[in-house]
Each structure stands twice: as structure tokens, then as C-alpha cells.
Design a protein that fits this description.
By secondary structure, the protein is mostly helical. It has one domain: lambda repressor-like DNA-binding domains (434 Repressor (Amino-terminal Domain)). 60% of the residues lie in helices and 6% in strands. The chain contains five helices and two strands. It has a two-stranded antiparallel ribbon with strand order 1-2. It starts with a strand and ends with a strand. Pfam families: HTH_3 (PF01381).
Amino acid sequence: MNNELKVYRAKRDLTQGELAKEVGVTRQTINAIETGRYDPSLDLAFKLAEYFDCSVEDLFTRE
């Protein structure tokens, strides 16, 4: 799965830790998602999309 999480995070000038705190996960989870080592649960994908006020499809696409 490809994602634009790092781009969206950079637009808001957030660290991985700050974003992690906002959505209730660890910084390592955000890092793993951004580097493609971990695909988020559906619940987490929706939390991230809600936080960035975008659709899940804006953040994540299938390869």
C-alpha cells in the first residue's frame, strides 16, 4: 500500500511523535506506516483521514 502520510504531516509541520499522540499510537507506528513496513488498521486509517480532514483514499492507495 502506498501512502501520502509524510506529505500530509509535513504540510502541518508535525513530527511523527506529535501525530502519533493525536491519533493514539506510538511514533514507531507512524514511522512504520510512512516507510511502508506496516499497513494501518481500518480504524487507524480513518482516524488519520479524519485528523487531516481528507478521505482515506487521499492518504492511502493500493499498489
